[in-house]
């Protein structure tokens, strides 16, 4: 059986481990400090720990879940990593620079089984879930990269490959670890989780009583079209999804974000905008319009820029808050899953 990763444990988990191993409780804080503040690469570097404890840590845990296979840097400052895992699978993580600070987009699964027809992440299906530590390590590795220029990760979006709500507990532990003051101390309001619409876990997430943001991948104003674009809609139809969204709004008082990928000739016509405006009117939400990235295997076309602005104008007329996502990494493999797909093909 493979050893767990040191990054898998929450702060309470470290306290419990220290207790089980007859160590004083303050050692938990010291380990967290070495992992998340000093960001060491080996247990032997944890020099204020007794030698026997360092040896026990080495025997019990793996420290480094990720190997850097490829790093792509865009002209706009976006950085995309392809990380290798212990079982020869690969995942992607992205650093994005915004006016408000640096954001990291993390992956929660190797591949994805949701099957959205416009997404590169689903190519090849789902291989496995990531552990909490494998998700945490993506942010740690990104921060190590930024340490070279004295920059800091300000926010995290769980919007990479995979469906976070189909890997629910590890994703929640990931949030607990990066949010913890003893961990990376990233505020809950600076963390956003995106789901394609796993309805039961939207209710569950609302009941977590957190200030973490929630984004819903919507991509259609009606259930028939959504089922064609997103097979998950056959399991959790649009009406059920919206009921869960209303529950979230009432329970948390937080604004929801709806992601809407504009696909040429599929869901980007004026009638779609009017239908979407009527659907969301009166809801405390933000619609984020995303001109779809070209994925060779999908052969979808991008919506013309003028048409994107017209779509936004129509939504604005219904008083639905709308933004157009700023593109990142246009000159590298921008779409989630593209770099991994290339790597898989090369190594097939």
UniProtKB/TrEMBL annotation:
<dbReference type="GO" id="GO:0051539">
    <property type="term" value="F:4 iron, 4 sulfur cluster binding"/>
</dbReference>
<protein>
    <recommendedName>
        <fullName>Probable dual-specificity RNA methyltransferase RlmN</fullName>
        <ecNumber>2.1.1.192</ecNumber>
    </recommendedName>
</protein>
<feature type="domain" description="Radical SAM core">
    <location>
        <begin position="98"/>
        <end position="331"/>
    </location>
</feature>
<keyword id="KW-0004">4Fe-4S</keyword>
<dbReference type="InterPro" id="IPR048641">
    <property type="entry name" value="RlmN_N"/>
</dbReference>
<keyword id="KW-0819">tRNA processing</keyword>
<dbReference type="InterPro" id="IPR013785">
    <property type="entry name" value="Aldolase_TIM"/>
</dbReference>
<feature type="active site" description="Proton acceptor">
    <location>
        <position position="92"/>
    </location>
</feature>
<dbReference type="GO" id="GO:0000049">
    <property type="term" value="F:tRNA binding"/>
</dbReference>
<dbReference type="InterPro" id="IPR007197">
    <property type="entry name" value="rSAM"/>
</dbReference>
<feature type="binding site">
    <location>
        <position position="293"/>
    </location>
    <ligand>
        <name>S-adenosyl-L-methionine</name>
    </ligand>
</feature>
<dbReference type="GO" id="GO:0030488">
    <property type="term" value="P:tRNA methylation"/>
</dbReference>
<dbReference type="GO" id="GO:0002935">
    <property type="term" value="F:tRNA (adenine(37)-C2)-methyltransferase activity"/>
</dbReference>
<dbReference type="GO" id="GO:0046872">
    <property type="term" value="F:metal ion binding"/>
</dbReference>
<dbReference type="InterPro" id="IPR027492">
    <property type="entry name" value="RNA_MTrfase_RlmN"/>
</dbReference>
<keyword id="KW-0698">rRNA processing</keyword>
<dbReference type="GO" id="GO:0019843">
    <property type="term" value="F:rRNA binding"/>
</dbReference>
<dbReference type="GO" id="GO:0070040">
    <property type="term" value="F:rRNA (adenine(2503)-C2-)-methyltransferase activity"/>
</dbReference>
<feature type="active site" description="S-methylcysteine intermediate">
    <location>
        <position position="336"/>
    </location>
</feature>
<keyword id="KW-0479">Metal-binding</keyword>
<comment type="similarity">
    <text>Belongs to the radical SAM superfamily. RlmN family.</text>
</comment>
<dbReference type="InterPro" id="IPR040072">
    <property type="entry name" value="Methyltransferase_A"/>
</dbReference>
<feature type="binding site">
    <location>
        <position position="119"/>
    </location>
    <ligand>
        <name>[4Fe-4S] cluster</name>
    </ligand>
</feature>
<keyword id="KW-0408">Iron</keyword>
<dbReference type="GO" id="GO:0070475">
    <property type="term" value="P:rRNA base methylation"/>
</dbReference>
<keyword id="KW-0949">S-adenosyl-L-methionine</keyword>
<dbReference type="GO" id="GO:0005737">
    <property type="term" value="C:cytoplasm"/>
</dbReference>
<feature type="binding site">
    <location>
        <begin position="217"/>
        <end position="219"/>
    </location>
    <ligand>
        <name>S-adenosyl-L-methionine</name>
    </ligand>
</feature>
<comment type="function">
    <text>Specifically methylates position 2 of adenine 2503 in 23S rRNA and position 2 of adenine 37 in tRNAs.</text>
</comment>
<keyword id="KW-0411">Iron-sulfur</keyword>
<dbReference type="InterPro" id="IPR058240">
    <property type="entry name" value="rSAM_sf"/>
</dbReference>
<feature type="binding site">
    <location>
        <position position="112"/>
    </location>
    <ligand>
        <name>[4Fe-4S] cluster</name>
    </ligand>
</feature>
<dbReference type="Pfam" id="PF04055">
    <property type="entry name" value="Radical_SAM"/>
</dbReference>
<feature type="binding site">
    <location>
        <position position="116"/>
    </location>
    <ligand>
        <name>[4Fe-4S] cluster</name>
    </ligand>
</feature>
<keyword id="KW-0489">Methyltransferase</keyword>
<keyword id="KW-0808">Transferase</keyword>
<keyword id="KW-1015">Disulfide bond</keyword>
<dbReference type="InterPro" id="IPR004383">
    <property type="entry name" value="rRNA_lsu_MTrfase_RlmN/Cfr"/>
</dbReference>
<feature type="binding site">
    <location>
        <position position="194"/>
    </location>
    <ligand>
        <name>S-adenosyl-L-methionine</name>
    </ligand>
</feature>
<feature type="binding site">
    <location>
        <begin position="162"/>
        <end position="163"/>
    </location>
    <ligand>
        <name>S-adenosyl-L-methionine</name>
    </ligand>
</feature>
<keyword id="KW-0963">Cytoplasm</keyword>
<dbReference type="Pfam" id="PF21016">
    <property type="entry name" value="RlmN_N"/>
</dbReference>
